[in-house]
Amino acid sequence: LGGYGHVSPIDIRDSKRFIQSLPKSVGRGRAVDLGAGIGRIAQGLLVPLFNKVDLVEQDAKYVNKAKEILAKEAKMSEYHTVGLQDYQPESGIYDVMWFQWVLGHLPDTDLIAMFKRCLKGIKKNGVIVVKENIARGGFVLDKEDMSVTRSETHFREIFKKAGMRIIKEAWQ
């Protein structure tokens, strides 16, 4: 999407339903949109559902555009201009950490290390949500942007290596 694409209302609706179907113990205090681009997910999904929303994006141009788009959103809190491979969340502050259509840009080793850091960033009953396209088997390399689409099995292996456990799954 190059930071300027459109997220369909159906995508936002289904993501909202997913969040609302999480256990009641998952709070609605603070969320973060990771690999956020210009903040489409923060704006359309997280701001309406959470009291405070942060944004993490490595491209300063996109962060500046997000600040412009989200300027009137009182719930927007912090904007971090940092790559996911280097992102270090503050300990125990997030109810939800949301990744959507971004993880294909990280190699497995960086992805595992990042998830381990993110586990420290969630509250006791917090969750990490991964919404990605899935390859039917193995992985698919996009030679245009050098991203990888991983299989469900591959993601499960990564989650296990990072010390994560799956509490809910959904297909869209």
Q: What can be said about this structure in brief?
A:
This protein has 172 residues and is an alpha/beta fold. Helix content is 33%, strand content 24%. The protein has a single domain, classed as 3-Layer(aba) Sandwich (Rossmann fold).
Describe this structure in words.
The chain has a five-stranded parallel β-sheet with strand order 3-2-1-4-5. The protein starts with 8 loop residues before the first helix and ends in a 10-residue tail after the last helix. Helix content is 33%, strand content 24%. It is an alpha/beta fold and 172 residues long. It has one domain (26-162): Vaccinia Virus protein VP39 (Rossmann fold). The longest helix has 14 residues, at 108-121. Strand 4, helix 4 (108-121) and strand 5 (122-131) form a beta-alpha-beta unit. The mean pLDDT is 93. The protein has helices at residues 9-20, 40-49, 60-69, 108-121, 152-162, and strands spanning 30-34, 52-57, 76-81, 94-100, 122-131, 139-142, 147-150.
